[in-house]
Amino acid sequence: MSLAKQVCADSADNGAPEIKSSSLVTTHFWVAEYPYLDLTLFSVAGESTFIQEDGALASFPESFSLNLTVHDCDGLLVNQVGAIFPTGSVGTLELGQFLSGLKLEGGLKHALLSVEHPEFVRCVCRAQTQSAAAIIGEPLPLSIGKGAFFPVTFCGERKSVVALSNPTTQSVTAKCRLFQGKRTPEFTVSLPPLGSRIYGVESEFSEYLSLDPGYFSQAYLRVTTKSSKSILVQILEVTEGGKGNRMVSFVS
Amino acid sequence: MQSIKWLAFAVKSAVTDTYVHFFPCAGNVSAPYPVSCKFTCFSDGHRSQTITVEGARLSQPDGIKFSDLFKDVTTPDCPVGLEIVLTSLQPRIDLSASRCIVEIASHGNSARYVPQQVGENLHGMRAPGIAVSDSLGTTELISLNGGAEKVSVNLSGGACAAVQTTSGASDAKPAVPESQRARNIDALSVSKVSIDKSFFENAAGVDQSGKIRERCVQAVGIEPVASESDLTACFLLYRDATTKVPLSVMAI
Predict the structure, then answer these.
(1) What are phi and psi of A26, to 5 degrees?
(2) Cα(A202)–Cα(A121) distance, integer angstroms
(3) Which residues of A touch B108 (CB under 8 A)?
(4) Strand pairing of A90-94 and B162-164?
(5) B108, B162, B203 ranked by CB distance to A247: nearest
(6) Residue A15: half-sphere exposure toward Cβ, Cα within 13 Å
(7) Whole-model pTM?
(8) Which of A141, B40, B50, B120 is deepest in the core (most CB within 10 A)?
(9) Distance from B94 to chain A by nearest Cα, in Å?
(10) What's residue A13's pLDDT?
(11) Could you read off the pLDDT of A188-201 as tens digits, one per residue?
(12) Is A135 within 8 Å of A198 (Cβ atoms)?
C-alpha cells in the first residue's frame, strides 16, 4: 500500500489564507483487536476557518489526509495506509482490515498505531465489544522525570492490562510500581523499538493480592522510565458482565 | 509552581459516583512532603463550600470519593463542576508534574479521564471532538464555566457524513442545529447538551461489518469555541445506549 500524498486545495472563497498541510502531527494509539474488540478510527477537522494565534483568519484545505502506520508488538511494520477525507466530514476507518498479521502476545493481538495528520484534525479511536463501546484515549506519555499513574481496581469481574508502547527507534526500559497500602512492589519491562508490551496487573502482582471471590481493593499503578524520549502507556480494564457481556474502558 | 489546578465534572446518582485520583509529583524530588488538596464544587451559579483535605504526600498517589466530600450534592440532571487544587507549602517544590484522573464509576464499569489543567495553553488550533451515535452509545457535551463571568460557547460541527477511505465525497452540511449553536453558560455553571438525533440528521450512517457485530454508526464533529478564559472546559461524555452508564469521557 502506498502512502497518501498531502493535499493542498485552493483557498476558501472568503480569501482567508490557507493553512499549509505540512503542519503535521502524529497521534499514537495502542490498539488491541483479537479476541474481542472491533476498532474504528474517526477523524474530523474543524469548520472552514479559524483564528490563529496572531489573530489572523485562516482556512482549512478542502481535504485532509491521514497516514497510518501499524507496528506489531515486536516493532515490525505490519501495514501502512493512506486515506484522504474531505474537510467537514467525519472520516471513518475500520481498523480490523489493517491489523491482520499481528502476533498474539499476552492473550491479545495488539499494536502501536501511529496516525500522521494535519494539526487541525482530531483522530479518535473507538473499541467495540458485542455489548459496549469505549473510546481509546491517547496513551499517556512518560519520559525521565515525568511518569504516569493509573487507579486500578481489583475485584473478581475486572481485569486490568497495562500496555506500554515505544514509538522511538531505540530500546527502552520502564518500571511499573504498584501502590497498595504500604506495599510498593514493582517490575521492570523492556520495550523493543516501535514495539509494545502488555502485562496483566493482577498476574504480575498476584502474590500481593488476595483475589478471593468477593475481594475488592483499590490500588495505584505508577509507570516511570529513565528514557529521555517519550514512551506511551495506556491501561485497559475489562469487566466481565453476566450473560457474556463484556465491557472495556481506557483512560481518555 | 507550588500549586496545580484542574477543572473536571462529577456525576453522582443512585448508580454512579465519582472518584478523584491524584498523584502529587515534583519531578525528581521524592521526599514525602505534605500536600494539601482543595476541592470546590460549582453549579447553577453557585460555588459550594471549598473542602481542603490534608494528609496527601508528595510522590504518593491517593484518591477520594466525591460523595465523601460533598455528601448532599447529587446530579440527577446535569453534572456539577469540580475544581481540584494541589498545593505544597515547600518553597522550592514544582508540582507541574503532578497528575490527576477522575473516575466516574458505575456498577460494573468506570469511565476514567484526565481533567483539564487550568493554565495549559489553550490557544491556537483546537481540533473538534467526535460525537458518535449507534446502538451501543450516545454522546453528551458537558461545558464547564468555573469563572466569575458568563461565557459564550458556540458549537460548530461541519462534519456530517462518515466517509470511508477515499470513496465518494460528501457535501459539508452543518451538524449542529441552528438552535443549539450559541449557548451562554453563566458563571460557576455547567451546561449539558445531549447530542441527540437532531445533530445527526445530515449524517449518513456507515454500516460497519466488524467481526464482532454489524452495526450502523453515525458520527459528527463537535467543536465548542469558548471564550479565552482558562476556567472553561468542555468534555464529551459517552454513555451506554441502553443503561445510560458513562463509558468514556474525552476532553475537547
Answers:
(1) -120, 125
(2) 37
(3) 157, 239, 241, 247
(4) parallel
(5) B108
(6) 0
(7) 0.87
(8) B40
(9) 12
(10) 36
(11) 999 999 999 999 99
(12) no
Q: Which of B109, B130, B217 sits opposite A247 (nearest CB)?
A: B109
By the 8 A CB rule, do A231 and A118 touch?
A: no
Burial A149-175 (b: 16+ CB within 10 A, else e): bbbbbbbeebbbbbbbbbbbeeebebe
3-state SS class at A10: coil
| Residues of chain A positioned with their CB less than 8 A from the CB of B136 | 128, 131-133
Q: Which residue of B has its CA nearest to A44?
A: B221
pLDDT tens digit string along A89-102?
A: 788 888 988 888 89
**Measured between alpha carbons, how far is A124 from B238 in angstroms, rounded to an integer?**
13
The predicted pLDDT at position B86 comes to 96
**Residue type for A84, please?**
I
Q: Is B228 helix (H, G, I), strand (E, B) or coil?
A: coil
- Long-range pairs, B26-30, Cβ under 8 A, ≥24: B26/B58, B26/B59, B26/B88, B26/B93, B26/B94, B26/B95, B26/B97, B26/B98, B27/A145, B27/A146, B27/B94, B27/B97, B28/A145, B29/B58, B29/B59, B29/B93, B30/B58, B30/B59
pLDDT digits (tens, 9 = 90+) for B60-70: 999 999 999 99
Measured between alpha carbons, how far is B244 from B249 in angstroms, rounded to an integer?
13
User: Would you place residue B206 in the very low, low, confident or very high pLDDT band (cuts 50, 70, 90)?
Assistant: low
C-alpha to C-alpha distance for B174 and B66, rounded to whole angstroms? 38
| Cβ-defined contacts of B88-94 (< 8 Å, 24+) | B88/B2, B88/B3, B88/B24, B88/B26, B88/B33, B88/B34, B88/B35, B88/B36, B88/B58, B89/B2, B89/B34, B89/B36, B90/B2, B90/B33, B91/B2, B93/B2, B93/B26, B93/B29, B93/B33, B93/B58, B94/B1, B94/B2, B94/B26, B94/B27
- B-chain CB neighbours of A87 within 8 Å are 158, 172
Q: Which of B100, B134, B159 is nearest to B239 (CA)?
A: B134
Task: Beginning with the edge strand found earlier in the chain, give each strand of the sheet holding A121-128 in spatial order.
Answer: A133-136, A121-128, A38-45, A90-94, B162-164
Beta carbons of B144 and B233 less than 8 angstroms apart: yes
